[in-house]
From TrEMBL:
Membrane topology: Multi-pass membrane protein
Localization per record: Membrane
Protein family per UniProt: Belongs to the amino acid-polyamine-organocation (APC) superfamily. Cationic amino acid transporter (CAT) (TC 2.A.3.3) family.
Tagged with keyword Isomerase: no
Domain of life, source organism: Eukaryota
Keyword match DNA-binding: no
CC annotations in GO: plasma membrane
Main location: membrane
UniProt name for this protein: Cationic amino acid transporter 8
Entries under InterPro entries matching the protein: AA/rel_permease1 (IPR002293), CAT_C (IPR029485)
One of the record's GO molecular function terms: amino acid transmembrane transporter activity
Amino acid sequence: MDLHPVQEDQQDPKPRSYWSRWSKQDFFPEPSFQNFNSYKDALSHTPSRLKDRLFHRSSDSFELLQLPKQSENSMKRCLTWWDLIWLGFGSVVGSGIFVITGQATRENAGPAIVLSYAISGFSALLSVLCYSEFAVEVPVAGGSFSYLRIELGDFVAFIAAGNILLEALVGSAGLGRSWSSYFASILRTDDTDFLRIRVKSLPDGFNLLDPIAVVVLLVANSIAMSGTRRTSVLNWIASIASGLIIVFILIVGFVKGKTENLVPFFPYGAKGVFEAAAVVYWSYTGFDMVANMAEEAKKPSRDIPVGLVGSMSLITVVYCLMALVLCMMQKYTQIDKDAAYSVAFEAIGMSWAKYLVSICALKGMTTSLLVGSMGQARYTTQIARAHMISPWFALVHPKTGTPIYATALVTLISAVVALFTSLDVLSSVFSFSTLCIFMFVAIALLVRRYYVKDVTPTTDLIQFLVCLFLIIGGSTGITAVWNKGMRGWVWYVVLSVIWLSGTLWMALLPKHRVPKVWGVPLVPWLPALSIGINVFLIGSLGYVAFLRFFICTAVMVLYYLFVGVHATYDVAHQIEQEPKTEQGNEIAS
């Protein structure tokens, strides 16, 4: 009987300070990394451990209940649907609508740019629906990392995690440099690089140092560290102010614009509309950051669908209307590619309004940085909870309820990248990573509905895999034919029939899991369509984007083989032993 108080004392040591975690055990607590001999032994078992990890799938309960314990302190549930709508608005509505619209309208679509934004918005909404179902069922900070870990396995999730971190770093660095460029253009229109420092000894693309971008990143991320609720309130106040400026732009555009500027509506044909849709799609990215806030939503089953779907629907309407008024204010052949709205206001005699446009664009980039910082840090936190990187980064501060170490990691690396790397180098890597994640999440949703381990019959699983192969194959084929410039209808019909056959066959298969609270409608049609669109957009990227993506992925695989596979193997098997140990202790008692 006297053993129980002693056991309680041993189990409840004095809590350590958040700021005093600097020992090797804090960074590498896994048995494989205790010393050189243990690491050498772990490496000798790499093949068997890799096999174990390749076929291992996590579970909803493990992601929801076990992994958050690694953070020691809980994140605060302080966000409502109102917060999530404006977090979505603040994350997505950055500089894209002001920067990309002019180029896409003049060179690709003409007034039909409105349809391009509608198509891209529909595509983004499909991905939002997939994210929403997962976020309701598994409301954790990991977002797509956790979803893929549950449905597609540990290794695929790691590849996704590596690309998520790459996206986080590249996205933040790109936004920081965009902010710097736009701010410089307000002060001096003839040279947007005049605030940067040129270093002749460095190669092109890396020789313009940008200290302004570094300062902006440090300030935005420091605010995000201070508290989720505080950052959210600041975001929605700024977003509402930005919304008022957008309303002003729309009113002036409809009053001063001329409908005759919309003729011809399709100067570049259907091809131009779809090419422009691929270009403007990047204006919609950022919503996945909001899905990462699920762990801090007060009522995830209500707040997440309303927040994500509501914000994306609002953004799509805003983008279409803004594209329409731009084409009404100026003939598409006269629209400026770089500063479309500012030049359009000058053309109607309201040159002073360009400053409102600049304020709105800078505000958009600032809130995108704020929300992006919050989402990226939570990605990193869940990845660290799984021990794919050091669990030190999973720690949540007891007072602020935010993952300060994870935020600092993303901040410092992105600041270094932003200091050296130009926008054109950053953008291609970011685009590929983002689209791959969206495609994988749509695939994971189909796996979730149609395959449940130890429940789904083998025949159903084989049929499902064949259907999935047909969907992906048909989508890839259509993309390849389009990019080769083959405009004959025969190939498109054949490949569309392949995609349609796979989707229809899958629709006839029995579903072995149904959503508990909220789910994507019209499964498998909407996820299959999302796969097709994302594959098509990936195919629109250039050769260099593919090359950089595969080089980065190869580096991630090397890291996984030498570090990640051993850390996750140790943690998984330690957790498996815990119930046996507890059972043994109960028997001994």
